[in-house]
Design brief:
Elements lengths: L1 H37 L22 E2 L4 E4 L11 E3 L11 H4 L4 E8 L11 E4 L2 E3 L1 E6 L2 E6 L5 E3 L9 E8 L3 H7 L25 E4 L2 E4 L9
Antiparallel strand pairs: 1-12, 2-3, 2-4, 4-10, 5-9, 5-12, 6-11, 7-8, 7-10
Length: 225
């Protein structure tokens, strides 16, 4: 019995020593960290143009003109493509199939690159304001998905001087369709939810709102086609 108690006591002492050692190491690490924060910034690491690790882009050049926009009729959208002379919110449209649309719509247009943007650095496409997620394709090359600001993609390796075919899929949120359906008989609703929706609730901004622009950076590592 005495041997067992002695063993327990020894084990407890060892455990306590380990714990005290861990605490001591933690306190030492915290002290080193505090000293690091207390040091004045090193001039070599201070913010400055030569220390940037991100490109500086030129002022935006808007891609003007109208867009052909295709909605999905299965979700209440128009049967045929619609022309937007200017980029605008779907909820500002008079057509209820667009005003209350929720889902994916595809924007299409063809554009040329301005002469002064055809040489030099890398070129990017900035979609401006997107509600809410977009996927871009240029000349049949997928440029990826953008879901937060800045809604932009590098197009250097896909762009041509003229005749660029741009497609942008935009997906908004569900509430606009759910709000519209709330005012319809159950058999005519396209979407379902367990949440009770107010048919008079304000609609959420939706679509590609732009402006869609081109920007160039002086980083000279681009190859123009």
């Amino acid at each position: 019995m005495k041997g067992l108690n002695a063993m327990k006591a020894t084990t407890l002492v060892v455990a306590m020593c380990g714990l005290l050692g861990a605490v001591s190491r933690l306190e030492a690490a915290q002290g080193d960290l505090a000293k690091g924060f207390a040091q004045p910034p090193n001039a070599a690491n201070a913010a400055g143009p030569e220390q940037r690790n991100y490109p500086t882009w030129s002022g935006p050049r808007e891609i003007g003109g109208g867009w052909e926009v295709t909605f999905d009729p299965k979700w209440g959208g128009p049967e045929k493509p619609v022309v937007f002379n200017d980029l605008s919110d779907w909820t500002d449209q008079s057509d209820p199939g667009i005003k209350h649309y929720s889902g994916k719509a595809t924007y299409r247009k063809t554009f040329d690159v301005p002469e002064d943007l055809r040489k030099g650095g890398r070129l990017r496409l900035n979609l401006g304001v997107v509600k809410n997620v977009a996927e871009a394709r240029l000349n049949d090359r997928n440029l990826g998905v953008v879901w937060t600001e800045p809604f932009s993609v590098d197009i250097t390796d896909a762009v041509k001087p003229t005749g660029n075919k741009l497609e942008v899929d935009v997906i908004n949120l569900w509430p606009n369709r759910l709000i519209f359906d709330a005012g319809l008989p159950a058999e005519k609703r396209l979407a379902r939810t367990s949440i009770t929706m107010d048919p008079n609730a304000p609609l959420l901004d939706s679509g590609l709102l732009g402006p869609v622009t081109l920007q160039i950076t002086p980083q000279v590592n681009a190859r123009r086609k």
